[in-house]
Automatic annotation (TrEMBL), chains A, B:
This is HxlR family transcriptional regulator. It comes from the Bacteria. Pfam families: HxlR. Residues 11-108 form the HTH hxlR-type domain. Coiled coil: none annotated.
DNA sequence: AAGCTATAGTTCTAAAATAGAACTGTCAAA
DNA sequence: TTTGACAGTTCTATTTTAGAACTATAGCTT
């Protein structure tokens, strides 16, 4: 499979993977959610090569996940800010953080704790059914072909 | 950064990314959740090269996400089955599917629909706070350093 | 005015990962 | 005895990534 075809597959997972399915992109997004916005800041906190950082930021802008916003004229400088489409990636990032907390921890405990401002408590993210509110488990879900399905499933 | 160090970073996202942060691994996991279990089945449905498929399956077994279970003696043949650790990746996969449904759809509609067996309805996955049950948004979450934090955040 | 620093990149070469195809080994069925 | 299914492994060519150096703009320092 060629990767430039991945975002046209009849599969929502493939299409998401086409955009955020590589290591650096996910780490860049982590920084975005931690309020990092500038080229140098991404570079020094991630130790990513400048070349790849430049590439990935362009791609995220192209897909509408980041906006490139000028913060200084003369010299022209820009920062990268999450769009709504980008903010909507939050559940993906949090699901990954939570899985890492649960299954990849060491004896030192969690690197970060998350507080929900609405209720004031430290929390874990939980995925529930939009209809009944119950916690979701893979085995309780049945998959149907939808209208956008062609030959490949997903 | 070297990728073999990524799973030792003091960051749960990095550690998760070290395991499932590449395109083929995520697509293989999609197939796992769609009940695919055998080498040939993965290969033909994904069009992945046999070399890489072999590599990725080994890695997923090594990290305890898949179990390699014999289903035939003479000739010895195995299938790959999600462990509990693997099943726990479901929220990540579903979050990606949902983002793709929302932001990467085309005029044909969704490729797949999901039915929750418990309530019988077609649903979307929603991420909520474990403490108060409210829907989570990035801006309502405050991040604290936890005990396992060293220098890098995440 | 000349030189240093900060920021945001681009360009180059070497190393690593992936694609694509062919090959191996085991056994069952025709 | 030959063919086919299954689960890989091995090989070369191409693409991607790493790592370092370089470019460009402008402010600040001496």
């Amino acid at each position: 499979m060629k990767w430039d075809m991945l975002d046209e597959e009849p599969c929502s997972l493939s299409r998401t993977v086409a955009v955020v399915g590589d290591r650096w992109t996910l780490l860049i997004l982590r920084e975005c959610f931690l309020r990092v916005r500038r080229f140098e800041a991404f570079q020094s906190s991630l130790q990513i090569t400048r070349h790849l950082l430049s590439e990935r930021l362009k791609k995220l802008v192209r897909f509408g996940i980041l906006r490139r916003v000028p913060y200084s004229e003369a010299p022209k400088r820009y920062e990268y800010i999450l769009t709504q489409k980008g903010l909507d990636l939050y559940p993906i990032i949090m699901a990954m953080v939570h899985w890492g907390d649960t299954h990849m921890g060491d004896e030192r405990g969690r690197p970060l704790l998350h507080e929900h401002k609405n209720c004031g408590k430290l929390f874990d993210p939980v995925m529930v059914c939009s209809e009944c509110g119950e916690v979701l488990h893979a085995k309780q879900v049945h998959v149907h072909a939808g209208p956008g399905r062609r030959e490949v499933v997903g």
